[in-house]
Amino acid sequence: MGVPVSVIMMGDKPTLMARFTDNSFWAEFIRANAVTINRDSRRVTKLNLLNSAAAFKSLIACQRAQKGALQKDPFQD
Asked: I need a surface site. Which of 35, 45, 57, 73 has the fewest CB within 10 A?
């Protein structure tokens, strides 16, 4: 699956930003062993995603555990 990206600056660092609404991206992402980033049909890098499924599941479990934990906005005062 290809996801179009644009380059944005985060401080002084160029960063890739992807915008998509298709949730199948995340399903494919957590099943994959690697992600390849290409520009103009040329490989820029290939990133290892080993254990990304376990990390993603932990992230979701953490978010669910925290849901409702804050009863009020901590920055409200």
From this structure: 73
